[in-house]
Amino acid sequence: MVKFLKMMMLAILFTVVLVACGESESATTGTTESDGELVAESTIDGIGAPETTDVTLRLNWKFKGEFAPLFVTKEKGFFEEYGLNVEVLEGNGSASVMQAVAQGQEEFGITSTVEPAQGLVEGMPIKMIASYMSRSPFLIVSHPDSPVETPKDLEGKSISISISSTLTNVFPNFLQSNGVDESKVKSLPVETSARNSLFLNKDVEAVAIFSTNEYPVFEQQMGVELTPLYLADYGFDLASLTIIGNDKFMEENPNTVKRFLAALNKGFEYTFENTQEAAEISAELFPEATDVETAKGQIERLEEIALFDGVPYGWMSPENMEQTLDILEESDLISERYELERYFTNEFLPQD
């Protein structure tokens, strides 16, 4: 009888150890599978359980290489690792993205830092929570036989600009701030396709574009190295690839927001360490929009302006936001200005 009781005690002890080990293992991971469904664990990287697991990220345009890290995060399972089921959907402009997020139709959206600053003036309940281009992607490229190496070089030359671009609205201010006589610059605001054709056909000497989009594409198509002029080097550093969220949603779901950004932090890091694979993933997902060579070139340009030394990807600089607001005020693009905490927060980003 004594021997039997000892065996029973050992069996119970063994069962307790197994259960404890299972609990310890689950605490270090973000998700488990239950009947094929995603189940979020209680903590991961010090972040508590998500208040909701199904969220949407709406892009402000169709696929281009700068969006690759967002899809890599999903395809490599990083969202799932943090207990989230995330839909990443293409969009049709920052205005519609802000409307959807402000009205609570979608949880997160992509814009630049410009549009949310304007949206706040209109009373939209939104806030910027990360910006993955810490340096502005706006640049002017020119043909090598007629280079524009400084803003002053634009005098006596023609430049095509997309009529729907934010750059069109700040361009006069950019010229004035850099001592350029606007009357000596032939600026042609046209539709995007016409803007590109004017430059590719050499009907204009320069074109205003995005470094992470058209720049590598134009060099590939023309077979030459174009001359770049980054607006950030001349006082116009407007951060972009910015994520906005709805104020109420973020207040009620802080752990979901933190997990979302933690997954993206991992996705951006993976993308820049594996640009070839990221480009292949992009081309496979969007074969009609891109190819491996184009996507890789755009990802490499993105990495050049995703500068986050000692801080997580997406960290927003107060100094950059102040400069952005200065530019918007001087360009008459905002009628009111608020305290910085109304515009953005870094509180949801991964903490060391």
TrEMBL record:
List the protein's name.
Answer: Myristoyl transferase
Mind listing the GO biological process terms from this record? Answer: thiamine biosynthetic process
Q: Which domain of life is it from?
A: Bacteria
Which keywords label this protein? Signal, Transferase
Q: PROSITE patterns annotated for this entry?
A: PROKAR_LIPOPROTEIN
Signal peptide location: 1-20
Q: Where is the SsuA/THI5-like domain?
A: 66-278
| Matches recorded under InterPro entries | NMT1/THI5 (IPR027939), SsuA/THI5 (IPR015168)
